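Fold these two proteins, one after the other.
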Amino acid sequence: MIVLALNPGSSSLRFELLRGGPDAGGAIERLAGGRIGSIGERARVRAGRGLERPLLGERELDDHDAATGFALRWLRDDAAPEAVHELDAAGVRVVRCARGRSVAPLSEAALAELEDLARVAPLHNAATVAVARAARAALGDGVPVLGVSDSAFHATMPEVARSYALPRELCRRHGLERSGFHGLAVASVLERFAAAGGAGPRIVVLHLGSGCSATAVLEGRSIDTSMGFSPLEGLVMATRSGDVDPALVPFLARAEGIDVEQVLALLNERSGLLGVSGRSADMREILRARAQDDRASALAFELFVHRARKHLAGMVTSLGGIDALVFSGGIGENSAEVREAICAGLDFCGIALDPERNAALAGEGAISPGGARVVVQVVAPDEELGIARATLAHLAQRLASKGP
């Protein structure tokens, strides 16, 4: 079977065409794919066959609809025309599934629900809906377009980790619970960590990118995570505030003369590293300014590290100890300075870095001392593979249900 994985970000789109058998856990062939960044500006396109992703240049792609159309035309006309013709399904990463299913058809009714949930994940849901609609229009009725939940991995969290201390009837009526996010990324990181020889029943994954989260994993199952009802909860992120006192929402609405939706936009889009530094949401720029004694950037860095350490320690508590700490995401993979700052002083729970390994690492690998009680490792996520596997599993299940 051939599937297309579509992974929309707030201003980006990753896409990949893959071939796999009915066993979704088996070998998968990467046929072609790429990444479109800076959508809405001069979009930068990297794409190629197999695993190659050379820079194709810049394109005028005003929105996710245009980016999806470009990706599908490139796959159909240049990269893999025969495979596109034989496409069995497309899977689209959905930040929050309205029906709580791991994979579900993205009908027009389902897309309307996702639009209604945009207030929960405003940085992603609009992009998801645009990509899904563009794919449905381009691929036609013969190719199902499926939503693959980014929260399904956290369905194993116990009730105590999923619950808010709110009236139970209110929670039941409105489905209020901590569903968590970054599930596709965390699941793929765990798989790659195990393939690289990583082991241990108690693992904390620190996913540090534009969005940031900490997840406690016990024997392969999520038991706690920092993001909750929305991706706003938890760590300081690129433009998201992370945890704030909820009383700030009505206070800011009154003080600034704005409504609740505008306060949420402030917390999601103009806070975090960007809001504290006053200059950038990019950790690389924060680090450069900090090195030049810019106090606001230094505070942004310190807040980011402080919140990550707090949630890391919380996950260790949920697990009753720790055997491995895994860094992932753009910041986690590329900033030795951030990794060092987060791990500093955590010897009491067995976490320590080898400074030379950490500083020299380019890509993936262990950064803890040899023989350390807690393995600290950097692993890149592969969300597109997770989307493909979930899509293949859904197709296989649907075929099996039809019977001989």
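Now the second one:
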Amino acid sequence: MRLWGVSTRGRLTLLALTVLVLAAAIADVAIYVSFSVVATSGADSSLTGQAAALGSGLEESRHQVTFAGGEVPNETSGGVAVDVAVVSGQGIIYRSPQETLSGSLLHSIAAQVRSGRPGFWSVEGPARVPWRVYAEPLPGGQGSGDVLVVSRSVAELASTLHGLILVLVAASIAAAGLGAWLVHWVVGRILSPVHIIAQTARELSERDLHRRVEAAAGSDELGELVATFNGMLGRLEGGFNSLQRFTADASHELRHPLAIIRSEVEVALRSPRVGTEYRRVLEAVRQEVEHLGRITDQLLLLARTDAGVLVPARESVDVSDLLHETWARWSIRAQMVRVEILLSAPASGSLEADPGLLRRILDNLLDNAVRHSPLGGQVRLSAAPGPQLWTVEVGDSGPGVDSNFAEHLFTRFGRPDGARTPAAGGAGLGLALSRALARAHGGELELVGSPPGAVFRLSLPAGSRVSLSSAPSPPGAAPAQPEVRARWRKWDRWRQGPRPPLAPRSKAGD
């Protein structure tokens, strides 16, 4: 931002110049006053010394002044010319031949001394030359009104002070100018990374996010600014690349079922078909449409979590009830592929969560576990309460997750090329969505064991209703609570009836 058309560098230079001028002015005044006081004190000392020497030798008799040593001296021992005058109440009874001050001025000074004001005066002599005057009552004088007045010219001192002023002003101007130039140069060097950052930001586009600010900055605030800006560019580059990959993967996933639908419809329209063939085509189209709907629904949920608008509808969820219901639903599907689900549920306990979203997380984890377990394998579903967190773990007996892919396991459309890519695999959104839903609850989903097998742990805040009673149910057993036992009888009856065919794609796993 510019103020009055002046840049930040200019404003700092003007501020420094103002400070330097003020400092120089204060220093000049202090130097001038100090020198003036010292010089004036020297002149005053010479006058008092001369007055003391004259006072001990002057004698006044019948309005005549004599000096014990002969003629009245007209200069100090240091060779400074001094005028001497003795003024009585009747007039000037003695004055040096070279006395320059007027009689009226001498009478005025003598009158002030008689009124009790002896001391020094600064007066103006002939030709406006400055003089310094010292007056005191004459010691030993016969009349009580005799006053000794000694004076000297201080023109040389005034000239010296005038020259000092010129020197101080010139030196101050030079120092302020040099200081302002140095400040301008230093600020320019300091702010050069800011200019580079601004120039880089103006030139950046979505194709230049790989660029970084190349500025020589130390470990100070500007160095931190450069590092922060480069870090921001790195995050933007990673986010943009991730968005590009996400868009490409989403397009690929959506294109595949659309291609199947189009091919099925085109084949059906080539020639008349019997009813059973049309039914098969419609069934295939229905499955692909459901697959498209699941992908779209997951993408919408991920977009809502990214935007921070997905707020779980929290309510009290009985953990044992939820685990037994999930176990009952997935045991049927697991048996169709010869996989056994072992349940270890707490005897009681509840937490505050959105039951629909919580079921979705467990369905995604169990779908992955069942699909990646071999024939005759086992899937373990367990939960345990704690003082702060509920932990739910889902483990399988499959090949596990390759260590090279573990860090990409929760990325969207992230599917490894190794052990966990069966032909019937999903779109790669299940784990990413599950982690997003867990974090929306204030919890976390992570991979805690692999290989052999993969173990995923879901951690959720316990809330205020956690129960630490956690006697586990035996593996594969029905729930032990009387209030929920009747509910699971209908699952047992449904399990014993005709079993529907397993869909080619799992709802939870896509």
